[in-house]
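Cross-check.
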Amino acid sequence: QRYHSAQVETLAGAAVDMVTAITMTYPAEAIGVVRAARVAGVPVAVSFTVETDGRLPSGHSLREAVEQVDAATDSYCAYFMVNCAHPTHFTHVLLGSGEESDDAGWLQRVRGLRANASKCSHAELDECTELDAGDPDELAADYRRLRERLPWLTVLGGCCGTDHRHLERIAACVCSPSPPHS
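Predicted model, tokenized:
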């Protein structure tokens, strides 16, 4: 909390609407950010990243991370997100398989996505010498499938490897009644 307080207090003093902590890799750091935001009186959103198995780099499940942050902060966080991972890394977690789908109250706390364009792991991306832009149409279709099942996902964007092409396709696919044809 102390580590993040100076940044959060500076932003709160500048009258921001909200602070966001992105690419959180373990619950304890997210808890510190949320506590700092609460003390500063500013709303906060937290975005976790996951590895190709759908778990945080710390080994926590997304559910564990959300529930730990909420328990430690009296659910002060406005909402949670997933970022810096391709939908193939986390769709099974969000759409329910195994322990993640039991008592899905935690799932409704996840309101946003900022996915990578690439299906590569973080380690593979670190080794890339060229940007992997993935497939904008495929990424948009992934977002659409997630929004169809989880309509409360209302904060959408892109992360590593995405550009205007990805975001245009995501917006067209998510906002249209039927998938657009290229």
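The radius of gyration is 16 Å. The mean pLDDT is 91. Passed to J.P. for a second look.
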